[in-house]
Write a sequence for this structure.
């Protein structure tokens, strides 16, 4: 197979998975957020949490649908473009993908209908249970997918059969391979932070237009609490993940850090231009010894350089170098925004500071950029292998012409931008609608009942709305 065909197959998979990954990541975080909102409503009986749950459930439904569609399309490429990979890894990865369907998909399919359409038709507790089950299903789906990807990064628990296929010797070792726990924690937290910044960004957008919008305030406040509490955990998880990667994939770390030479007391290179021809980092800005301190927790810790392996066994340095820095920069931006929110909250100015609200609106998509950057770091850093150290990308492709791959790639680009572009536009349209519709409706109903003498008084003499009866024209809507 020609180099062009291999590159086109890689580009096609990268393009489709880049579209796919953002939707499940958002679904994971949003399902859990909706579950928290419904739990708060059941505990406090505050209708604002219920209305926020309704608001975000509509957005979740669209996001979940686009995630399913994009995932189905992506899976076909294993048979069309990556047939050799599918054949050799099928005995290991096939069952793991099947387990995802039998567990996560069955849970989601079984309870999604109740979550989306059961409100008012089943009891509140049953609806909460359905929502929590869907949220658990999204986490379970991520668990199986991360087990698959982690095995490709750090393969374990396998042997070879007479056909040269990978076969399982220990399912425990396959699933709980050396990098699996770190990848799972890092990815799930990333999904939660991504959702938190979208929720906060939407809240900030509506607060800029209506500073006293209570539902927008709740959304914004919850998103900021998640940012300040969870971002430090993500930074620690990322550090632990980096140490694990250094142990099992040292060349990936060398590309991330920009180290061509093996050295003790390695500096931390903040910026620079990787030059793979001269095997140097040009115009670099570095802090002495800090690279070894971060990666080995020792001042004189040794970091293997890219020159320790032949050029054909190295990942593309520039892509990995910059994607890693984008991910890290966004992580510290999230931390800074969270800390600023604490300062403004203490000054009682969290909801009335326009420049900060605008910053949060513009930062709403930063989680998606961080996830894509992290995925690029992970997958490009694994090159030139599909199964690290054992099966190369060149050995994994199907015997297919470059023209065929190029034609299908062109179709994917056109169709994806048309369909998912429309889907994203609709999501943004939903988010532009104010979540305070319930409050507006309640004001109208109270005024209507007041004019008809339908307000009673509580024990303190405050006016309250009388319960709706069957003859009330608003009864059907409120029920």
């Amino acid at each position: 197979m020609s180099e062009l065909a291999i590159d086109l197959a890689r580009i096609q998979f990268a393009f489709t998975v880049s579209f796919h990954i953002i939707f499940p990541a958002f679904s994971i975080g949003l399902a859990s957020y909706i579950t928290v909102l419904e739990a708060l409503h059941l505990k406090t009986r505050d209708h604002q949490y219920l209305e926020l749950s309704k608001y975000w459930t509509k957005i979740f439904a669209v996001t979940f649908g686009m995630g399913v569609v994009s995932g189905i399309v992506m899976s076909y490429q294993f048979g069309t473009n990556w047939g050799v990979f599918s054949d050799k890894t099928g005995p290991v990865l096939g069952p793991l993908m099947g387990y995802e369907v039998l567990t996560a998909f069955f849970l989601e399919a079984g309870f999604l209908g109740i979550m989306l359409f059961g409100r008012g038709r089943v009891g509140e507790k049953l609806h909460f249970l359905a929502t929590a089950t869907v949220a658990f299903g999204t986490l379970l789906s991520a668990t199986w997918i991360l087990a698959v990807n982690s095995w490709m990064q750090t393969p374990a628990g396998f042997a070879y059969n007479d056909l040269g296929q990978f076969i399982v010797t220990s399912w425990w070792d396959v699933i709980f391979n050396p990098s699996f726990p770190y990848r799972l924690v890092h990815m799930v937290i990333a999904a939660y932070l991504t959702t938190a910044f979208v929720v906060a960004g939407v809240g900030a957008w509506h607060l800029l237009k209506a500073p006293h919008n209570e539902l927008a305030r709740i959304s914004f406040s919850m998103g900021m609490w998640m940012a300040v509490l969870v971002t430090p955990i993500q930074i620690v998880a990322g550090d632990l993940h980096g140490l694990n990667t250094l142990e099992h994939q040292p060349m990936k770390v060398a590309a991330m850090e920009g180290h061509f030479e093996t050295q003790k007391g390695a500096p931390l290179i903040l910026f620079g231009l990787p030059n793979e021809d001269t095997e140097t980092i040009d115009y670099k800005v570095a802090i002495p010894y800090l690279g070894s301190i971060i990666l080995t927790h020792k001042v004189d810790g040794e970091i293997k350089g890219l020159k320790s392996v032949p050029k054909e066994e190295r990942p593309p340095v520039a892509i990995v170098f910059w994607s890693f820095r984008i991910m890290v920069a966004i992580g510290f931006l999230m931390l800074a925004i969270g800390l600023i929110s604490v300062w403004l909250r203490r000054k009682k100015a969290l909801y009335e500071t326009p420049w900060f609200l605008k910053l949060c609106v513009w930062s709403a998509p930063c989680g998606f950029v961080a996830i894509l950057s992290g995925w690029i770091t992970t997958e490009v850093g694994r090159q030139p292998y599909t199964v690290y150290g054992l099966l190369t990308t060149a050995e994994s492709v199907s015997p297919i012409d470059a023209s065929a791959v190029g034609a299908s790639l062109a179709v994917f680009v056109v169709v994806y931008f048309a369909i998912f572009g429309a889907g994203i536009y609709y999501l943004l349209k939903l988010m532009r609608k104010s979540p305070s519709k319930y409050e507006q409706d309640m004001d109208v109903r109270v005024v209507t009942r007041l004019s008809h003498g339908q307000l009673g008084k509580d024990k303190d003499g405050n006016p309250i709305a009388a319960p709706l009866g069957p003859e009330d024209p608003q009864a059907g809507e409120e029920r």
About this structure: The beta strands are 158-160, 166-168, 263-264, 268-275, 280-287, 302-303, 385-387, 391-392, 455-457, 463-465.
